[in-house]
Amino acid sequence: MPEPQLSVRSARAKEIAHRLALREKRSIADIVERALEAYEFRETGREPAAVFYRRLAEQGADDIHLEEIIQQNRKPNPGIDL
Q1: 51 with 41: CB under 8 angstroms?
Q2: How far apart are CA 18 and CA 28, in angstroms?
Q3: pTM to 2 decimal places
Q4: Integer distance in angstroms from the first to the last C-alpha of the chain?
Q5: Distance (Å, rounded) from C-alpha 36 to C-alpha 30?
Q6: What is d(CA 45, CA 24) in angstroms, rounded to the nearest whole number?
Q7: pLDDT of the residue at 19
Q8: What is the pLDDT of residue 45?
Q9: Which of 59, 19, 56 is nearest to 35 (CA)?
Q10: 18-56 CB burial, b ≥16 within 10 A, e <16
Q11: How many Å apart are CA 26 and CA 80, to the nearest integer?
Q12: How high is the pLDDT of residue 9?
């Protein structure tokens, strides 16, 4: 099955992605994915899973109650406004 395609309609965005891909020796898809992940992290304040688990390990937590951590950070979805 072929991978999904991302269509970029901005000539400037396409040019920047192409230039970065050449400089970093990566695919354009990889550059776009990394840029979107960085944007998501910056805008939502979420930390990547690897950073989260490293932080837990550094805190010396032998017995991690993951469900408790999830519940502490869970926020209700207000749903749609009818």
Answers
A1: no
A2: 6
A3: 0.48
A4: 40
A5: 10
A6: 26
A7: 92
A8: 73
A9: 19
A10: eebbeeeeeeeeebbeeeeeeeeeeeeeeeeeeeeeeee
A11: 40
A12: 83
Give the integer Cα–Cα distance in Å for 48 and 31: 17
Q: Torsion angle, CA of 34/36/3/20, rounded to 10 degrees?
A: -50
CA gyration radius for the chain?
19
The whole-number average pLDDT for the span 14-27 is 91
Higher-scoring residue by pLDDT: 7, 13: 13
Q: Which amino acid is at 1?
A: M
Residues in the chain: 82
CA angle (74 as vertex; 69, 48 as ends), nearest 5: 65
CB-based burial of residue 66 (10 Å sphere; 0-12 exposed, 13-18 middle, 19+ buried)?
A: exposed
